[in-house]
Automatic annotation (TrEMBL):
An example molecular function term from Gene Ontology annotations: metal ion binding
Known cofactor(s): Zn(2+)
Coiled-coil zones: none
Source organism of the structure: Sporormia fimetaria CBS 119925
Signal peptide range in chain numbering: 1-21
Protein name per Swiss-Prot or TrEMBL: Zn-dependent exopeptidase
Amino acid sequence: MHLLPFLPLLSLTLAAHTVQTWPPQPPTSLLPAAESAELLRLHRKLVEIPSISSSEYEVAQWLASYLRSKALKVELQEVSPKRYNVLAYPSKRDTNILVTSHIDTVPPYWPYYYNETTHVIGGRGSVDAKGSVAPQILAVLALEEKMFNDIGLLFVVGEETGGDGMRAFSEWEKRPTGYDIVIFGEPTAGKLVCGHKGILGLGLRVKGKAAHSGYPWLGVSANDVLVEALGTLAGLRGKLPRSEKYGETTINFGRIEGGVASNVVAETAYAGIGLRLAGGTPDEVRSTITDALGDIKKSVEEQGGELDIEWREGYGPVDIDCDIEGFETTTVNYGTDVPNLKGDHRRFLYGPGTIFVAHSDHEALKRRELEQAVLDFRRLIVTAGRMDKFREKNLEL
């Protein structure tokens, strides 16, 4: 009997009985196989659950269940209806170290994917910031297994839309006390961040008078006023507070709208503007901008219109601790929850993946970056924490 004609059928039969494992193992891994697989499964599940800001209910509930399955005590703090921060700890509630990140993402949702050839992992939140959440959990669980009982975990909502989750935790009457060290997770390309720029937002709202575009002198163009105001603000670039550490304060005209049709003198116009502060204080910048727009505001009011400046809450540059040997350091231009957590504590900011792909349709990082983050978070916790606790127990990492 010749087997050759049956080889294709035999191959299909064997394939049907082959157990497919996930995730596939790369040629080299920085973690033991079981820990690496757990990291990838956790990260995948977190990314697969859509959690755009204000819609974080499902991810918070799932994450709480997962942490309870790891024998951690879990509390849910309601920030607003169906929106919860997740606090977890081993036994004692007041821990010396708090490890934290955010579980909300920017829109739109992009599905999870894993490239088995390149080991690139993508999807909304794969970097910002579920790429920090999963390694943080694995790092803390490994230390808990070694009887280090002084680490808490906090995962908050709303970081991408102003930080209402962290602010709610900071103001929580039942908030644990005593944190000496807080480690924040954000995409920092695997570097320790020594600080980031401040943020100040404002809106320019103009009210004019509508008229036929053939007789523009009968109206007051809100668009004309807004264009003049934006030109004045553009002229402030390079003249606002700067610093050696953070460079120039930048101005972004993020949203502009006005009028209803090309043959109508615009009655209303609006611009949303964001500044990244490299120096000075929000009050100083507010004063500079208010003074710069003073003549325009006076002129439009004399014509029967209005120019209102709507200020949003802001903060100045944020200096962050980065004195841990063995880490590269950097500064970043994006905002974080670091200034939203009040208290007297040392603050560290670290995470895998780069901000350059965050908030994009190609948000992704490599599996090796996730694995390295587990080791780095572990090393950061140990080095920044009370080393005597580890020495007393003769613990090795």
